[in-house]
Amino acid sequence: MTPLMLCGLLLAVLLLCPALVRAEAFQYTIEMDVPQQYRELLQRNLEIYRWQNNPRMNADQLQRLFKRTPDEIRALISSEGFFSPRIESGLAEKSGVWVARFSVAPGEPARVSSLTLRVEGPFADGSSENAARLTQMREQWPLNPGAVFRQQDWEAAKRGALQKLLIERYPSAGISFSQATVDPETNQVALEVALDSGPAFTFGGLEVSGLKRYPRSIVERLSAIEPGAPYAQSKLLDFQQRLQDSLYFSSAQVTAETDPAHPERVPVRVEVTENPSRKLGFGVGVSTNTGARAQIDYRDLNFFDRAWRLSSALKLETKKQGLNGEVQFPLTEAGYRDSINALLERTDIEGEVTRKIGIGAKRSRVTGKIETALAMQYQAERQDVAGAESKLNKALTLNYSWTKRDVDNLLYPTRGYLFNAQVGGGAKALLSDQDFGRGYGRLVYFHPLGARDSLILRVEAGMVAAASRDGIPSDFLFRTGGDQSVRGYAYQSLGLKQGTAVVGGRYLGVASAEYVHWVMPKWGAALFFDAGNAVDEVKEFKAVQGYGAGVRWKSPVGPLNFDIAYGRDVEQLRLHFSVGFTF
After folding, report:
1. Hey, which of 35, 172, 337, 427 has its CA 20 to 30 A from 203?
2. 560, 485: one domain
3. DSSP states of 73-132 as a string?
4. Which DSSP category does 329 fall into?
5. Terminal Cα-to-Cα distance of the chain (whole angstroms)
6. Residue 583 confidence (pLDDT) above 70
């Protein structure tokens, strides 16, 4: 074999058998004796771990890394508040394998001894308002004397203090000086932070871009920012959220320039992307209350080219069929939403068949967590009850509704409450067949029980003050039973017995308690107890009971509830299916 052939053979062996090369690679192990809570920190950051499987490693490089490692350990441990650790190390070769040993005793943690926090610049104007803000910043500083000093806590505390300036009046603020002075002998740390507020900013006018089909007034009326008002990041975010919730825009971005050279009346820039004005939708579904459903929706956000919002729907269900339409006018400068509506509907529920027509007008307003609505409605209804004569009921009503949603999450509430109160009525002198007044209230309370459990309490009460129920349209009377009232009973099957049918009464009372345990993040199990009824005389009220168990799923549109309930008074099991909470 020639020398050239021999070299070729050796090269082929090396290329085809890389394991032979790896077998001769330099090997070393690391033994680290350190409290468990700091082991991952060292393994993730020490250079000696990073080079452990590098094929270019050799004994000389290992010794250099070994000598640097105690200093690296000391720096990493100090970020956790230990500035006087005791570190012992050793390096030895055993059976051809090098072993690097380290023993780390962190010692006593350093604790904060004092804090000096000051704000320089225009903020330090001597005003009582800014003095109070500075006092609050100091009170909310998380690293108080006695706290263990950790580097990431120190950085977070500085960012938090600065953020309090950035979000209100001083968006160009910065940290001008910060120092943590450590005394290793006493294990104490003195903190000093100086913030430079920069100038105070005020808002100017709106600069709107992206509008093509909708008028500028839509954007202006959704804004609560007045020219000359002090800068507040929360106002920008609130304005942006209003634009995104308005249906007119698929996206919206609201910003303000924060150039320290020009702090007064800075323009508020609004960039929007418009939604298509017209949309036709189709849907099918099923409900254990009203049966199978098919639906056609039509929406026009620029009705008559005036930015009026037209929404209409044709809904065909087993027990209910209807056609409705509503025109909403642009938000007023005071924040009110005015609308007009019309309705045609037929229902066949528990032996009562109603055919109704209605027209009305409404003014609503949302302020923070509170929504109010004032509505005037004229409704004519023909009522056919099995075994009784048909009746025609008419009413012109004025109704007021007040709703508060004070929960931690509107889609998946776990803490807080939802409350709705309604008052209204009609009079014979004003196109109604009967004088009556109506009141209704509903409260849903959410209370967490540990990390995975929660309690949901619900109560409803209603009353119609009238000489009798005759002449009052069924929408203003009360029936109950079904998915989100008294489970274990058919939809609106609890009320006044009339022949073989069930009709509405003048009094309503419902209470419910539900316990939910979340087995997995999106799946839970529930136990519940419901009680209630609807009657025409208070002395006749007797609460019927339903109880059972169910499954909960956190779907993208809200919690889906699958319940099996036993109606004690009818001695029957019934399946219930519902989505979210009715409010």
Report:
1. 337
2. yes
3. HHHHHHTTT-SS-EEEEEEEEETTEEEEEEEEE--SPPEEEEEEEEEESTT-S--HHHHH
4. P
5. 92
6. no
CATH of the domain at 180: 3.10.20.310
Torsion sign (Cα): 282, 284, 287, 292:
positive
211 shares its domain with 172: no
Listed residue (243, 244, 269, 245) closest to 256, CA to CA: 269
Q: How far is CA 583 from CA 287, 293, 325, 363, 580, in A?
A: 18, 21, 20, 18, 9
304-343 pLDDT, tens digit each: 988 899 999 999 999 999 999 999 999 888 889 999 999 9
pLDDT digits (tens, 9 = 90+) for 190-208: 999 999 999 999 999 999 9
Query: For residue 310, is it within any domain?
Result: yes
Map residue 455 onto helix, strand or coil: strand
Which contacts qualify for 549-552: CB closer than 8 Å, 24 or more apart? 549/525, 550/525, 550/526, 550/576, 551/523, 551/524, 551/525, 551/526, 552/516, 552/518, 552/523, 552/524, 552/525, 552/526
Type of residue at 64: R
Each residue's pLDDT tens digit, 265-302: 999 999 999 999 999 999 998 888 988 999 999 999 99
Are 512 and 458 found together in one domain?
A: yes
Residue 5, in any domain of the structure: no
Alpha carbons 179 and 117: distance in angstroms, whole number = 11
Amino acid letter for position 7 = C
Structure tokens at 357: 């027509």
Provide the number of structural domains found in the chain. 5
Q: Which of 293, 309, 330 is the last residue of a domain?
A: 330
**For 11, which DSSP code?**
H
**Of 66, 88, 105, which residue constitutes the final position of a domain?**
105
Q: Which domain holds residue 59?
A: 24-105
Question: Is residue 309 domain-resident?
Answer: yes
